[in-house]
Amino acid sequence: MASDTTGHLATPDQPGTAVAGANIAVLRKAAGLTQDQLAQRANVSKSLLSKVEVGDRPASHALVTAVARALRVPIERIHGQPYDAAATHAPIEELRPALRAYDLPPGEQDAVRPLAALRAEISAISELRSRGLYTRLGALLPGLLRELTSAVLSTTGRNRRTASGLLVSGYYAAHGLAYRLGYSDLSESIEHKLAWAAAQSEDPLAVGLADWTRANSFQAAGDYDHGLHLLDRARVALDPHLQADPAAIVLAGSMHLRAITLASRAGEAATVEEHLRAAHRLAADLGTDDQQHYHLTFGPANIHIHAVAAQVELGHVDQAIALGKSYVPPASVPPTRAGHHYIDLARAHLMAGDRPAVLHALRRARQIAPEQTRYHPMVRETARVLISLHRRSNPDLSHLASWLSLTV
């Protein structure tokens, strides 16, 4: 895809403007709308929309979802996803048939390793996901999902439940890969398969993970009310397990954290504070370090990271910088979570006009979780606006832009 004013969309390596802004302008014109008309339909200011279109202001999550809804297009069309020439995309096409056959019995030629071996491979897969190593994750997932599907459909009783629990983990990793690379429709279909596997496992906490993951589609689509309702219902289902199981606390706390994200993008500051208080109450039962269960991380550090991100989404720039500027995520937080903290901090610094601090935060994100940083739409949007704003050559910015396949 190429970007111009004749109806083509921007690619990530086109110089001169932010990808989201350029695509909004193209899609707006294709719909026959003026900036005034689109601003009214999306309930955003014309001034902000104009600055986003020319690349002088980054397009926030809230603006992108509002504009996408007003234009009746998927959000990834505005972000320009999936990004062309990404080396990690090839495994997606191998992943599709493995997902398509999720409920079909195995063929005679399909050999299945013992569950202990599959569990060990799932552990390795989960580590790759938490570190944001998408290339390696994509190479391993298709074959593993096929094997786990065969294990579920060829066993009964306890072994079937165990294999189903492992398949939940496989689907969770596949969901993260598809979503991060911009395949939102595929990630949404995986959410339903994850729920199916969780039901087969007969594990209420696996069902909780499926609900937490499903909330992602509501978040991505800007359907915040339904997402918050889903999370409220899922937390109620976990209540009977909170007293006896730290894993249930981690799941319930993670639902509060996701609710914080949804509420902040909806601009509901009071709801954000409500869920922050509830998250802190739950974290008090876990101690000082974050814990990981069912692939989710919850505790004081991840609460702090979400608090920073929420202030960014709410537009409270000073609060976001004050909370996050000197904060260093501890080792108990996975690299993808720590990297996300610096991505959000970079956005805050850009809103404050501190360009050197933006570059510093993006460098830290790259050091911690390089592939997540490279394919995150907000990183590309932030870098694009920096390129638009800089009037003189900047070697650090040029280096970052080259790494992101952007052109200064």
List keywords for this structure.
disordered N terminus, 2 strands, mainly alpha, 408 residues, single chain, 434 Repressor (Amino-terminal Domain), two-stranded antiparallel ribbon, 70% helix
Walkthrough of the structure:
The two termini are 19 Å apart. The protein is built from 21 helices and two strands. The relative contact order is 0.09. A hairpin with a 2-residue loop joins strand 1 and strand 2. Among the domains are: 1-80, 434 Repressor (Amino-terminal Domain), CATH 1.10.260; 84-202, no CATH class. The chain has helices spanning 19-30, 35-42, 46-54, 61-71, 75-79, 90-100, 115-130, 134-153, 157-180, 184-201, 204-221, 224-238, 246-265, 269-283, 300-314, 317-324, 335-352, 355-368, 370-375, 377-389, 395-403; strands at residues 291-293, 296-298. It has a two-stranded antiparallel sheet with strand order 1-2. Helix 7 runs parallel beside helix 9 (157-180). The protein has 408 residues and is mainly alpha-helical.
Brief account:
The chain is mainly α.
Largest sheet: 2 strands, antiparallel
- The SSE order reads HHHHHHHHHHHHHHEEHHHHHHH
Termini separation comes to: 19 Å
What sort of overall outline do the alpha carbons produce when their principal axes are compared? Answer: globular
Helix content: 55-70%
User: Helix- and strand-based class?
Assistant: mainly alpha
Strand order of the largest sheet: 1-2
- Output the number of helix runs: 21
Using only C-alpha atoms, the radius of gyration works out to: 21 Å
- What value does the average pLDDT take? 90
Approximately how much beta-strand content do the residues carry? under 5%
Low-confidence stretches: 1-8, 11-17
Number of beta-strand segments: 2
Kindly report the oligomeric state of this protein.
Answer: single chain
Organism: Spongiactinospora rosea
Protein name: XRE family transcriptional regulator
GO molecular function, one term: DNA binding
